[in-house]
Structures are given as structure tokens and as C-alpha cells.
Predict the 3D structure of the following.
Amino acid sequence: MAAMSDTLETSFLDHVTGNAAYSAPPAVYLGLTTSSGGFADGDTGTEIVGNGYQRQAITFGASSTSSIASNVAVTFPRSTAGQGTVYGWGLFSAQSAGDLLYHGMFSSSRAVLVDESFYVASGAISLTPSGAMQGYVFQNWSNLTLRNVAWAQPTALYFALDRSASPSSTFDEPIWHDHATGTISGSTQTAAAINERQVAGLINGAAETYGGYQRSKIAFGEASAGTAAMAHSVTRDDGLFDNTAARSIAWDSANSRRVNSGATTFRTWVDRVEFPIPQSSYLVVGAETSGSGGVPYTTVFSNSVDSGGSVITTALPASERIFGTIKNWGIFDAENDGNCLFRGAFTSAISATEWYDVVRIPASDIALVAA
């Protein structure tokens, strides 16, 4: 199993959180250690010295989301005297000195005697993702560090809630109103679908852009000791709407919508990430109408909902009410969709199935760890 060094972990976290861009070395070199535990994160471990030894350049094939491997065989110079027993390897940023980047152990140890060459087969040095790091991040980070393929820093990070069974399952985020398109997913007239429309705050199309659940913008401080602590988060208080015009709930018959339904207040927290659950339902517009005259749904419901002038009496499970039961978290590089960078599980599930509530995660639970 391979791991990043302490130095590279700090560079990784600073790069992915937007604090400091990483500059990759133009070439990467393979080194050998005679320490039985291999090189360590802090660049300890005894590297072979003298007797003809020298680190050798190594190259890697393009990374996938699950692995990257060396694509060339490496043969070290013949030893002029015994070099000891080799247990592990390290990837360095220079042929001498430089920084340890990654390290790992060979499947078996081997003594290097006089007049012998240590051989490493193509593909023998490989890396896979670890910890909360997701495949997208692993692919881009390993290509950057080992192949010098550019990867721009994310411009902003967003914390998201996940209702799926585990961080390895498909991400199941509470439905949100996509402010880029003015739409939300789903179109069926079921109790669960109407619940998600009301919670998502779909109103007046793209002109009024926010409502209900939204990812929380999050920032991290500079990394230290392989960890980056949350610096602050930003919440759209009360999940209302980002409107520039004066509030008016008068019906706009020409456009089949309310004129203007509210405004968002932005709040910054340094001790938590917060997701307010709406204090009432939101107006659903367009073709989603109740009864005659194009009047939007306004019914607040838990076990039933007004749908097209009739009542759906089928009980709505608690897991489908409001935001649902939150089990995991994710960090993305965009407010809507985007790439998932990190995923993890909460110690215990959070029930977010009631109105007038808040999902609140302490900052201490959100620190990013490199591995």
C-alpha cells in the first residue's frame, strides 16, 4: 500500500482547497530503502547510499479514477559492494535531495549483493485512492504530481448532504432548485415528488434563483500536519429566494406565477455548517398547478398533499419528508452538480424530516485529512 508523504499531503490539501497551487516537479525519481518499515510519511527511513546506488527516473501511465501505475521498467546501476536488503520504495522530486512524494513497500524484500542490479518491473509501482478522496480528485492529483499534467485549483468548495446508505453508494442529495436553469429534477405527481418541489423552492423560473435546500459554500484554512480545518461556511438563511425586486405575492397571470416571493439573507459561520429547513412550503409554478386558474401548490403536508385538486392520502415515509435522513456528506467544486472531491460518513444519522429545523454540523467534524 502506498501513501503520500507529510510534505505532499500539505501541498495536496492546500491545492484542493484553493490556498496554494502545487507546482509539480519536471521529473520523478524512484529511490530504495533498507529500513524494514520502508520510508515513512515524514521522510524517515534509510535510503541506500554509495556503492554505485543512485535514484532512477520513473514514468507513469495516465491515471484512472481508481489507480495509476508506472509504465517503464527501472534497473538500478550494478552495485560495487553489498547495498543491504531493500524493503521499500519512495518517489522523489529530484535525483538527489528533493522531497519525498509517495512511498510504499515491495511485496517481498531482496538483498542487493556486490555486482547486482536491483530491478523494478513496469507496473510494479502503483497508487490507489485512500480515505475520503474521491476518484476525480485522485485522477487529477496523481496526474499532476507524477506526470506534470496541469490541474487547476477549484475556485470554490461546497458542502453537501447525502442520504445514501454509505459513502460508496450513489450520492443521494436532497433535491434543490438549480438556479442556473430554474428547474429541479423529477416530474411525477406523487406525494414524494411534490414534497421535493415544495422543499426545493421552485418559484418564478430562473429569475428567482434560490429556495429550500442548497449546498453550503465552505472554505478551509492552510493545511498543517496533513489536516485542513474549516475556516468558515456561508448559509442562505431560511432557504428563501434571491430576488432583486421588491417582494410581491400578487399573481402574475401573464406568466402564471407569483410576482416575487422573498429574499435570501447570507450568514457566515466559523463554528459550523448549517442547513435551515424551510419554515413553510414554497410556491410551485408553471404547469404544476392545484385546481383551476393556475394557482400554485401552497399546501404544507407530511402525510398527504393537494395534487391537481385531489388529495393523495398515501402516507409519506419520514425518510421522504423535507430533507430526509442524512447519513453522509460530500464536498463538491460547484454549487450545482460539479465534481465530488471528498466523501465521508457522519458518526450517526441526522433526522431532517421536520419543518422549522436546522441541520447543523460542527466545524470540528469537517476537517479534511489527506489520507
